[in-house]
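ingest -> validate -> predict -> emit
validate: passed (alphabet ok, no gaps, 149 aa)
predict: started
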Amino acid sequence: MAAEAQLHVDIQLLEEDSHKVSRVTDYHGRRLKDTVDINLIMKWIHFCKTEHGDQCESVWWTANDDDPPDFVRMIDVKQMALVRAPPRCRYVALSYVWGGGGEEYWTTMSNVTTRNRPAGLDKSVLPATILDAIDLVKRIRLIKFETWI
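emit:
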């Protein structure tokens, strides 16, 4: 019986049902579709900036100053190059499982110089997930995301 007393059920409201309980639709779960709703993402980013601003801006490397460590690199989606993370930059982080293999798109000592140059990232060897993320960041550029990691 003790185990049952600690049972916690977490029920999430879907966007399509939010009207049934007089809730706004913007911040609830939704069924996945084949395309991304860029306007919804823009709405979420605007909400974040206006409702809790700097709270989202703090990251582990800004404890003492605004400069990220030298080893932090990002993809500049405008130049299609690896760049050192600029101070106080806005970024989108992609987290996913790489899967097997992939040596052709790993950054190594032998290809890092090339990848640091404008157009140095060869899109033909990048996985579809990374290309989709780059495309997404390019589409939301009007909010001044300079880089993507």
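Residues 77 and 138 are 7 Å apart (CA to CA).
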